Amino acid sequence: MSTNTPLTQSKNPIRQVLGPIRGRLIIAALLASLGTMLTLVPLAGIAHIANILFANADTTKLTIGHIETEIWWTVIASVVCVFVGMALMLAGELTAHLADNRMTHYLRLAVIQRLAQVPLGWFTSRASGEVKQAMQDDIATLHSLAAHFYTAVGRASGALLVSVIYLFALDWRMAIIALLPLPGFLLFLRRAMQSSDVNMHEFVTRLERINSTTTEFVSGIPVVKAFGVNGQAHSNYQKAVDDFAQAFDRFTRPLVALMAHAHAMVTPVTVLGLALAVGTLFIAIGWMTPVEILPFVLVAPGICAPLLLLHTLLHDLGSAAGAAQRVLALLETPILEQPNHNQQQLPSGHEIRFESVSYAYSDSHRALSNINFTLKPGTVTAIVGPSGAGKSTLAKLLLRFFDPTQGCITLGGVDLRHLETSALYRHIGFVLQEVRLIHASIRDNIALGRPSASQQEIEDAARAANIHERILALPHGYSSVVGEDVQLSGGEQQRVSIARAILLDPPVLVLDEATAATDAGNEVAIQEALSRFTQGRTLLVIAHRLDTVKHADQILVLDNGTIIEQGSHQHLLAQRGLYTRLWTLGDYATITEPKVPSC
Amino acid sequence: MDTGRLRNNYGAEGAVMLKMFIQLLGKDLALFRRYVYMALIYGVLCGLTVTVLVPILTQLLSGNLPAAVPWLVVLLIGIATCWGLRRYVEQAGVRVGVAVLQGGRHRLGEHVARLPVGWFTPSNTARLSHVATQGMMAVAQLPAHVFTPVITGVVAPVIIIIALFVLHGPLGLTALVALPLLAGVFFLTTKLARRADNAFQRHFADTSQRVVEFAQAQSVLRAFSGESGSTRFLEKAVAKQHRSGVRLACLSALSALLNAWTVQVVFAVLLVVAMLGMNIHLGGTLTEENIIGATIALLLVSRLIDPLLEVANYGEVLRSARGQLDEIHHILSATPLPEPRAPRSPCSAAIELRDVHFRYAPREPAVLNSVSLYIAPGSMTALIGESGSGKTTLARLIARFFDVERGSILIGDVDVRQMSSVHLASQISQIFQDNYLFTGSIADNIRIGKPDASDAEMTEAAHQAGVSEIIERLPQGIDTQVGEGGARLSGGERQRIAIARALIKNSPILLVDEATAALDAENQAAIAEVLAQLRGHRTILVIAHQLSTVAMADQIVVLDGGQIVEQGSPEQLRASQGRYAQFLSQRQAAKGWRITQDDADGACS
């Protein structure tokens, strides 16, 4: 597959992206070109009719019948040519649009397939914006390229080609004169480009600045209002707006005159006037007859529109190149290595071992170093420590959001890297603080991991997660679409996500204990659900409140990415280290153990 | 008259766009008007210049060369004038563009700065960001790139039709009849394409949403991908987008074709009419005069068709321009909070709600229903209730995120609507979940609360909010740059800096949303500390989550379904065995919960 082979940098990104549909696009361009040529036939037709008429002026009635037939044939041929031409152009447009739709569709699918294999750690909050930009906006930019550019080039070049040939065939001297505005246009255009290059850099810098300043201004308004100060962000925004307007003005001002000249050059009026003026001269010196200049007056102005069209399209080509580059970059995102079939191993049992595991997000910042511990089947292990100590990084390594930079993690004796992704998640489930429900029915959300689960199984899972009653109370029950039919509170979402994990029934569970964001009723319901769910499983808990995990079989105290203490609650308290400090800080000791409330 | 209808069809669309431009440009509208007039004059002049070819060709074809020369001079003057005018039209267009980029953006900025805080939902913020950057850029380029060719493309043919009338009555009439027909067809095809376009945009937006979901929920999708792969939802959306894309391609190709065909049909009809007309004139012989007349008329017809075809090509561009203007219009139409003419100052830090009713949108259910509440100055009130009971809304209304639907909110006996927004803001510190930080150092961000704060005050606030620990860890301390939007710090760290920022402001009223603010244990502790220290010194309203917070309060208010169901001191409520008592027991149970089940003090089972 092309997505797996590294693509050479030297290749033009647009070419690479359009490769698979190039053939269709060329056909589309040819159709459009041919169509345009045909639509120009009536102009020649008019000239032809005029020719016939003038040749037969002041003739008697006798010949009129003959002339009339010839004129009518010309009219009919012209009309037929126009309509056939239009049909061909339509066919060209359709071919291009359908080819484009095909290309954008396959590009999107390719991106999806690729991203489904990159390390989970790649998906930061920033990535979702980038992915959306590339998959939707950039591919949409490519659309205008594929769907419009080729046919437009075909149309324009068809029109130019047929006009030039026709005019030269009639009279080469006059043809040269009539086409003179063309090089004039290109000359002014070139000068415009050169003068814009000078200010381009400033323009782009200012454009970037106004974009980032605007984002900050817009996001910061609520804060600014809360503090009642006329914020720095607003004056920054105002300044960026003024600066940009100035840069825009400076950038466009020299262009305006040049572009106006260029455009005026290829206005039909100019071309027409030139043809008439020089035509008159040619008539005066006897090079041509009056009737002979008619075709020039008719056809020459027609080259203006396609020329301008070409110019506009070339302008768009620049942004398409950037878009293609971004899409290609996304298609080359490094992926998590999947084990070869012969490397694949099946875990025996589900003991988990961290062996000298280190992880660094970047070269400079080490998040975890030299972590060693074992999760014995059926035991509970808690990770505690101040925020930023590396607790969630450790849990994410076990879930293979990314791979360790050093050392290895094994499940039942098999390195996680030699396990197939689906096999890994059959063994290890998780309930994390950040709950994500999918925009789909509640049934689909619970059955996400097992779409074939029966209604009974789904309901059982929901019941175990303490959410069944709530779902039944919804207007559409299990078919209610999350975010559309129903807005679930944070705690309710958490319970749905627990039901989802229950349905998969994994022997190992990674749990983020924080339930702080939910109200009291929800918190109890979640805790009940978790109590039921965790029974008999190997458990790794990221603990935020130490008292919740004081009965864990082993507690790992993490600080600055290393395990500095390890043992049971009593054992750790006796050590009088960081754990003891955290315990005192949390004020847990003063809270008397409450009585078990009656249920 | 038929031309009247033509103007109506195009006019309706044109008038809407014009209205939007008026709204966007404000006092800069004169520039826009000037530009439109110049473009119109330019179009007329172009049309007139083209018609000069009639006398020239007539004379040339009749063999009267000298008589053609003066007209030729007129033509050349006309061309020179058009050439010169073109430059002024483009300059006027650029000036309108600059006005949009400068005046329009300022106007947008000032407008959104007056909008209620509640307006800034994530989707509105994203929309605003897009409009203020790309949207404005696109609109600014409209005059020079789109309006000029369209205006001249419409005006010049009108002039030519008049010339046709003079030259060849039947042709002129046919062209005149054809124009409204053309306009009608353009109108219909635009509508047709817009319908397909809307459907496509809808699917496009759906897919975009799925893409974001796909990226954000990737961990969940992949972990639960056992049987079917993690991509099925997104793939389904993409397939739908693909199908509507095919439909759009067909429909827009069809409508473009229909436009061009109609123009060509008109052309063909004109051609035939010219021929038939000649037959009528023929009578006995083909006089040279007739032939010349007919030939020149046909020439004019071809000059008439060309610009019309060009205008037909701009349909799609105009459609998207309309979309951009719609977006701007949507934002500029949001109602800002009214500012009082004669602002009043509160006489104390008391908060009072009098029979407050509120709903987020006219047809949505009420969020608060007849809520009345008095919070004495310097007292602490804890607000509890299930999610969705209206706690957050109540706190936000006090900070005037929105205005109430009915009833009133008073601070120190003054209605918040009677206070200037700056003054109201100076009365209230908020610790809510929005913790946006600005590019700059940690110190810069804390100083937003009090620009002239002394170093001692800074240290104090940083210490109270638990920011000192963060500062100690960082090599550059309080001068560490936080990055764009605070991106270089963790969520918890940002939250604590936001708390420090609110504290240093030192205003008499403090609103705290503990349920959302207390993300991790450190922040919970920081907030508890803040509350304990400020209690008795400020009027405090806290959406309470921790038992310790509730216990500290002078007054507890229990909300349910947008109404106050219980109210009183902690002792009173505990005794009454109502909702508060239930809350207490749930919290106790939650607090006593242990992750391991083998102990006696586990949760209910």
TrEMBL record, chain A:
Domain ABC transporter residues, every copy: 352-585
Q: Where in the cell is the protein located?
A: Cell membrane
Question: What is a GO molecular function of this protein?
Answer: ATP hydrolysis activity
Q: Enumerate the InterPro entries for this protein.
A: AAA+_ATPase, ABC1_TM_dom, ABC1_TM_sf, ABC_transporter-like_ATP-bd, ABC_transporter-like_CS, P-loop_NTPase, Type_1_exporter
Q: Which UniProt keywords apply?
A: ATP-binding, Cell membrane, Membrane, Nucleotide-binding, Transmembrane, Transmembrane helix, Transport
ABC transmembrane type-1 domain location = 26-319
Q: Which PANTHER family match?
A: ATP-BINDING CASSETTE SUB-FAMILY B, ATP-BINDING CASSETTE SUB-FAMILY B MEMBER 6
Q: What is this protein called?
A: ABC transporter ATP-binding protein
- Mind telling me which GO cellular component terms the entry cites? plasma membrane
Q: Which residues cross the membrane?
A: 25-51, 71-92, 145-166, 172-189, 269-287
Gene3D superfamilies named in the record: ABC transporter type 1, transmembrane domain, P-loop containing nucleotide triphosphate hydrolases
Query: Topology in the membrane?
Result: Multi-pass membrane protein
Would the keyword Secreted be found if you checked this record's keyword annotation?
no
